[in-house]
């Protein structure tokens, strides 16, 4: 196992949402941000993805949680 402090659990996760304000309800932008974050993690296996939308006075407050396993380095 890695010496990275994030690697103390068997399933890892992160959550993302768009910044508040104009564009907050932009699903496509949120998906692009999540895809960029996954790419930056490197070799991981996604276990689950959850999407939620909370109503607000303006655009919906969207968030995505990604649950993943770190892959062992390929030899």
Structure description:
By secondary structure, the protein is an alpha+beta fold. It has 1 helix and 3 strands. Strands 1-3-2 form a 3-stranded antiparallel sheet, covered by helices on one side. Strand 2 and strand 3 form a beta hairpin. The longest helix is centred in the middle third of the chain and has 15 residues. The chain is elongated and about 45 Å long. The mean pLDDT is 86.
Q: Runs with pLDDT <50, length 5+? A: none
The main pleated sheet reads as: 3 strands, antiparallel
What proportion of the residues is helical, as a percent range? 10-25%
- Mean pLDDT across all residues, rounded? 86
Provide the succession of SSEs. EHEE
**Ends distance:** 15 Å
Spatially, the strands of the biggest sheet line up as 1-3-2
Structural class: alpha+beta
Give the CA-based shape: elongated
Question: Radius of gyration, rounded?
Answer: 15 Å
| Number of helical elements | 1
Percent of residues in β-strands: 35-45%
**Count of beta strands:** 3
Short summary of the structure?
This protein has 75 residues and is α+β, with helices and mostly antiparallel strands.
Task: Pick out its properties.
alpha+beta, 3-stranded antiparallel sheet, 75 residues, 20% helix
Show the helix and strand layout.
Elements: E1 12-17, H1 27-41, E2 44-54, E3 61-70
Antiparallel strand pairs: 1-3, 2-3
């Amino acid at each position: 196992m890695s010496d990275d402090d994030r690697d103390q659990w068997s399933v890892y996760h992160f959550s993302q949402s768009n910044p508040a304000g104009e564009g907050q309800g932009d699903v496509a932008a949120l998906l692009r941000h999540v895809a960029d974050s996954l790419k930056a993690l490197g070799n991981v296996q996604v276990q689950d993805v959850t999407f939620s939308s909370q109503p607000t006075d303006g655009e919906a407050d969207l968030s995505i949680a990604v649950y993943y396993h770190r892959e062992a380095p390929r030899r």
